[in-house]
Amino acid sequence: MLHYQIEFDDYRQHLVHVTARFLANPTQVLSLPTWIPGSYLIREFSKHIEAVRAYDEDGRLLQIEKFEKNKWRLFNTDHELITVEYDVYAFDLSVRGAYVDQSRLYVNPACACLGLVDQEDTAIEVEVFLPPKLKHFQLATGLKSKSLVKGRYTLYADNYAQLIDAPFELAEQTRFSFEANGIPHEFVVSGKHAMNAQRMQQDIEKICSTEISMFGSAPFKDYTFMTMATANSYGGLEHPNSTSLISPRDDLPKASEPVEPSADYQRFLGLCSHEYFHSWLVKFIRPENFVNYDLNKEGYTSLLWIFEGFTSYYDDLILLRSGVINQDSYIKLLKAQIDRYLQNPGREIQTVAESSFDAWVKFYRKDENSNNAGTSYYNKGCLVALCLDLGLRLRGSSLDALMRKLYENAQNGIQVNERTIFNLCNELTGDDWLEQINHLINTTDELPLDQLFPEFGLSYTLKNDKSLPFGLKLADKPEGMLVQSARRDGAAAKAGLSANDVIIAIDGLKATVKLAEKYAKQDGTYTVLAFRRDELMSFEVKAAGSELSEVELKVEDQAKAEKWLKA
Ligand SMILES: [Zn+2]
User: Fold this and answer.
1) Are residues 202 and 338 both part of a single domain?
2) Interatomic CA distance for residues 371 and 354, integer angstroms
3) How far is the CA of 560 from the centre of ligand 1 (A)?
4) 317 with 216, same domain?
5) Domain CATH code at residue 121
6) Which SMART domains match (predicted)?
7) Contact indicator for 342, 230 with CB cutoff of 8 Å
């Protein structure tokens, strides 16, 4: 048994005090993950570990040596009961970290609980002690738990992998319980908010039962949604039987929420639907090399277009299928997804398989060049899923059927590799899909949306979008007009202007976004004066029609559309 005691008495200074007790191996190594599954960036969680001390059974101080950035070693400790104590600095509000203050105690064990190398399968008990002033806080977690005394909780994990994939929160919470297909669910919200809980429950129940019914069963026995309401933050992280969400409080349903959810609330419902879908796709159905994560280094896969892309396709589609949004809303969400794709010049540079593989150094490390050079495995992956779904339906099958095959395989211990989608499409239709799927995932050729939509009663028309003058995303600032990003193929970038330049004059007039928009629509060459750092530079920008496209997507034949949308 590995036992952690977690105390929050220094919550005002954002400190978590951890005491780990265990029977040590000879030269026992302790290690902390460098990343957390579901978020593909080396986070170096160990940077927040402070003052590590080790003691023997009699309380004598032992030598503990740090020998790698995230690893510590004890010596001659064979079968001794060892205590290791340390503090964790916890002031990261993200769903990946730990956050502690007077309003909330939130811990991802991946960033707080040192693990025992070569004892990863040991059963784990975590005892949580609330400070006297916060004894009324309620607990939310996907882990099994029990509380015999007020202000004290015990959490249980079968092994270390389960522990670090289950965050827990203690806070003043708004919560409700419900059942979906007989499975108990908890929905928990903390932070300042005025959520209409009744409406939330009505919608989330439909979403959950639609997803369970699609797969036929669920890979969990209970499920917990944990949401932190904030001003502007947005994000989610999936776990096997829980999810941690952070959302703008304005995205939560209001007392006066209209029958058709507002765009803000649709975004929150989509986030819930997305993370819940991950319980099947990525937590249970996994890339082969994610079956045992090595949390000491990057875990590469070129398959995130499946795990994030398909999930992004289903998140909104499930909202429609469950009746939570209507068809017009769904078509709008799909249009936005297609516009994002069309307006991203990087789609001509990077394939969606490359984008998956490079998540660690590109997708999770965005900069001013990202849109010019990269494609998103969420965005393009979603549209690849759409193309596959429509293509499979034209041959008498569907992506739903493929998802159920993936689920059945995973139940039999068969996980996903580079060949899986090719093989399953073949199995479902009897056709060879090699060339078609290669085209979607291993080339930067345009997607065949213009050919597929008409088969399902939708017209697909491209029009020019003039929203970016000279290919620049601009913002008026007191010091001038700031270039937030520059499309590589735009008139301004071709003339040499870059992201972070501050434009002060166009054609001898004070630069404003309004003026730039006016000039961009006319033909002509303009002298643009801009500061790069503190140096004034001059550029000759030749205005030309915008290359940007947006799509007009219309249902022309409702009966044909329903063959896809009402499936
Ligand atoms: Zn996701």
Assistant:
1) no
2) 15
3) 30
4) no
5) 2.60.40.3650
6) PDZ (SM00228)
7) no
Q: Same structural domain for residues 330 and 457?
A: yes
Encoded tokens for 216: 């036929």
Same domain, 424 and 563: yes
Residues 6 or more apart whose Cβ sits within 8 Å of residue 194:
249, 252, 254, 255
pLDDT at 544 over 80: no
Rounded to the nearest whole angstrom, what is the distance from the C-alpha of residue 309 to the centroid of ligand 1?
8
Same domain, 442 and 501: no
Residue range of the domain that includes 137: 2-165
Predicted local distance difference test score (pLDDT) of residue 223? 98
Alpha helices in 255-363 (DSSP H): 263-277, 304, 311-321, 327-342, 352-357
Residue 244 Cα to ligand 1 middle (Å): 12
Ligand 1 geometric centre to CA of 308 (Å):
5
Residue 546's pLDDT is what? 59
| Ligand 1: centre distance to CA 130 (Å) | 32
Could you list which residues have their CB under 5 Å from ion ligand 1? 308
Tell me: the pLDDT tens digits for 350-385? 999 999 999 999 999 999 999 899 999 999 999 999
Distance from residue 23's CA to the centre of ligand 1 (Å): 38
CA of 211 to the centre of ligand 1 (A): 15
**One domain for residues 432 and 505:** no
Summarize pLDDT for 142-194 with one digit per residue, the tens: 999 999 999 999 999 999 999 999 999 999 999 999 999 999 999 999 999 99
Please tell me the distance between residue 268's alpha carbon and the centre of ligand 1 in angstroms: 14
Q: Are residues 513 and 536 in the same domain?
A: yes
